């Protein structure tokens, strides 16, 4: 064909499109996660930095290689793999072994995203698929926590390993039926600012909330899931605390401990794996909350956020099916429905 | 129950570059090309032949069916030929080509005497003879709309002064410069339908028009000006009805199913001209605008003027546009040639430069739900399009594909830039073809 | 431990019994003939027959609602097997293929606009189609997507059928929004490959190979097989003798002759004057008295080879413009069985 010189473009309307794009959304999420990443580097130093770097690079490379293998266009420039890599990193303990991180990248991108068909096709949150896989395959490495450097103490983070996270201590107490719970376990400021052991993203609630508010402002997440999820956990947690104050922690503990804030703001709200309508999102958040508290208090693991979100991801298509909004001008079909239709 | 807004919708940039530019009369060109299809329904049938002399205002084509319209010559001159010519709809369609003799010799215009006491049927006949169709772009023959079948009772008339499309200001200027015509036209409609009160809906981004019309109707209790929240597509008739009355047009139905009649302000002015002056529809306001136009302007152009003349009158291009849109950028049709004529529904010419036209390929669907949240009719564009792409159009129709009003909000808001609206249109065409096959 | 074993065994037993009962209660009677037929059928599930997949067609076959030849995909062997299974006689039909009636010159066809949007011919056609010619092939491949047999490809923006793979199921015919594809017998070698219904001036302004309805082909055809319908030449396949005269006459070369090269007939001195060739010649190009040597008028000869096939005296040879014998006379013994139309003795 001859080339198109000075020919007008003809296309279907609309001819103005939103300035948003997938690339913009992804890199905005990266920016929103940056405070939490930076705080984790502050507390854990090099041990955190290399986990983040390796995870991000690993995920990007795996996506590029698998895309080539599956003969699909390589679209790493849209930043989706970077977001997934960053989220995976925030789910790992500081100082995780390099080989574990790479296996995690392979499972996250390969099993969590590419086998489903790539961006937008996956059922489960890829970072959580990776995390849960690693947790089950390498339980020791995934629960070896490093001690964070003290706030404002100057000097680098130490190599020291430490005892369990606040949730770990809670679980131990429940299992042994020893009443060492309540506010006494850790100070609130420590938990909020991040000066507690845990995976990279679990620690600083403030940094995460800042990022979450930024995403809310941009309109890339809505309030439904975070508010419902955290609210449900808080309410359920508090109810159990009232039932047995010595054994079960308070609502505030539940909110600040573990990966709830990270999960509620960044993982459960993942567009691809969560319901599309507000009503559906509320159901989703509620379900996540219930499962999280049940696993935390009565399940085998101290942390239930990952499993809760994955289980609700599986329910998302069903939720979407049953929360279809009522059409404008909807006319209910006549009671005696004739089979078939026009065809 | 006025809500003054509707759920869903999007906020494209308003870009009303010509809101303060008064309408300028564009002189008639040497050659006028009047298409025979400028309305919904059967194309009109020519009443003249090659070589005939025609006068300004003379009927040159008559309705080709029940839903059809008269067409009148906007100039005096000689019919050069009747042949297919480029048409804004994309294909060449039969048109009457007239060579303008520059004299503007008119027929004897015959207004309706004392319309305030005339029979509604007389008024409707006069409107039909004047070839008036919906000038908001839908081009539905007005005389058919004003005589709904007897089983429908109309109790509300809403005049659409919303003009929610970005860039367009033709209706806005009409309301500012000829408010009496708009109001008179509405009163004529009220007389025809036997109603006591009518509404004019205007978006809040036209405060001067709202104020002016409110002032003119301050002491009248038969017209109420409703100011509406600025959102696209507030000017669609279904969302307009909802915002002004709270009623929903039933699926598969028309406004008359819920007792409403909606008309454009331009149609009102045309009706006023037809009844009070006997003038048929021969010209209309057209906004020539866009970042590629040197001097964006509102023009009063005769039907059949090639759009090249309008662009000339606006100072020409500052750079070659990537797209030339007939109508507004959200629902208008892109043109491939500057030879297409102005039709009864050409509300504007928006010339967009390459920098504002996105040509990137679509990304995969993220299931973000934006299209669902912003659809004014609460449809599920993402699922409907998925089904259409897979060839399962019957299931897509079950989800509401045929209720889509093609406003384009979903395509606009989609961050992956998926051509949702185009797929919906393809699906609709297939459903219609299937229905025809099995009928 | 024992409890666990007992419970699991019990569960297993319940499931087994349940499955057994279900397989009896919900058993669907399938006609074994329909099953056998389904196995034999090509299994492409192309829908060309109009039934829901090969199983649907098999059911219709068994119910005698359709004939074996209604499946255009099945090859000759398959059809024989089907005939055997059904216990019916099989009448062979000629192989048919799809033909795309557009063959513009890709280096010359212009676009009137740049199309951006869904890569589908239907979509582009809804916006008027990006080609200057409002009737031509848009090249986005709706037909390719519809074809279950990879028998149609897009080359240089034009759809082209691969006759060896085509099964004439008709899915491409439906898919083309401009109705460019038609089914023809494989034996139909001469085809008009233009679908532009506009008048001459409009056609030549957009495509040099378009049909301008000049009627030269109509005049050249010896059997009145070609006529002008809606400003395009249309060949009646039944009447056409594939002589190629129309293709040779066409000034814009929109008629394509896919047959072998045509040569003029020439009678040598072995002629016995049986007059059979003169009788059969559709162009009236052979003259001669009974028992006298006949002669072919090369100007009138349309090169259809009817006389060549008929002559049993090794008297007719086919020559080129210089008179060189390109194809020697047909040997006496190889009398071909005539089963195609137009040549019954």
Question: What's the gist of this structure?
Answer:
Chain A is an all-alpha fold and 343 residues long. Chain A has helices spanning 22-44, 46-69, 80-90, 98-111, 126-137, 139-142, 166-176, 188-193, 205-218, 224-243, 251-256, 260-267, 278-298, 305-322; one strand spanning 9-11. Chain C is built from 12 helices and 14 strands.
Structure description:
The complex is a heterotrimer of chains A (343), B (439) and C (345). Chain A is globular. The two termini of chain A are 40 Å apart. Chain A has two domains: 121 residues, no CATH class; 133 residues, no CATH class. Chain A has 343 residues and is mainly α. In chain A, helix 1 packs antiparallel against helix 2 and helix 4 packs across helix 5. Chain A is 56% helix and 1% strand. Chain B has 13 helices and 17 strands. In chain B, strand 5 and strand 6 form a beta hairpin. In chain B, strands 1-14-13-17-15-16 form a six-stranded mixed β-sheet, with helices on both faces. In chain B, strands 2-8-7-4 form a four-stranded antiparallel β-sheet, with no helix packed on it. Chain B has a four-stranded parallel β-sheet with strand order 11-10-9-12, with helices on both faces. Chain B starts with 22 loop residues before the first strand and ends with a helix. Among the domains of chain B are: 163 residues, 3-Layer(aba) Sandwich (Rossmann fold), CATH 3.40.50; 69 residues, no CATH class. The mean pLDDT of chain B is 93. Chain B is globular and about 60 Å long. In chain B, helix 1 crosses helix 4, helix 3 runs parallel beside helix 5 and helix 4 crosses helix 7. With 439 residues, chain B is of the alpha/beta class. The longest helix of chain B is centred in the last third of the chain and has 19 residues. Chain C has 345 residues and is an alpha+beta fold. Chain C folds into four domains: 54 residues, 3-methyladenine DNA Glycosylase II, Chain A, domain 3 (Orthogonal Bundle), CATH 1.10.15; 94 residues, Alpha-Beta Plaits, CATH 3.30.70.20; 71 residues, Alpha-Beta Plaits; 64 residues, Alpha-Beta Plaits. Chain C contains twelve helices and 14 strands. In chain C, strands 10-13-14 form a three-stranded antiparallel β-sheet, with no helix packed on it. In chain C, strands 1-5 form a two-stranded antiparallel ribbon. In chain C, helix 2 packs across helix 3 and helix 2 packs antiparallel against helix 4. Chain C is flat and about 110 Å long. The C terminus of chain C is likely disordered. Chains in contact: A-B, A-C, B-C. Chains A and B meet through strand 1 and helix 1 of A and strand 15, strand 16, helix 12 and helix 13 of B.
